[in-house]
Amino acid sequence: GNRTFNNDDVFWIEIIKCLKDTGMSIQSIKNIVELSTLGDSTIEERKQILLEHREKIYDEINKLQKYIDKINHKILYYEGIKNNC
């Protein structure tokens, strides 16, 4: 029941997990993997997919930062009420 992975296998497992955990669709991940099997002629296409994905991640980070700011503001408000009692 034990599996042996080489460095290339580990790389692909890590990158697929990264892409999945950051919200990339399974279809897009499959597309990158398939393109990579075609060799260097698809580097620009793979790069473009990753650039677009990175932009979505940045958008999500910005949205989450705004939510954190609102939550922090509310916490400070509650702390101010508590300290004024």
Care to describe what's here?
It contains three helices and no strands. The protein is mostly helical and 85 residues long. Helix 2 (26-37) packs antiparallel against helix 3 (43-83). The longest helix is centred in the last third of the chain and has 41 residues, at 43-83. The termini are far apart. The model has no long low-confidence stretch (mean pLDDT 94).
Distance between the terminal alpha carbons, to the nearest Å? 63 Å
**Strand share of the residues?**
under 5%
| Class derived from helix and strand content | mainly alpha
- Round the mean pLDDT to the nearest integer and report it: 94
Question: What share of residues is helical?
Answer: over 70%
| Number of helices, counting only DSSP H or I runs of 4 residues or more | 3
Gyration radius over CA: 21 Å
In a nutshell, what does this entry contain?
This protein is mainly α.
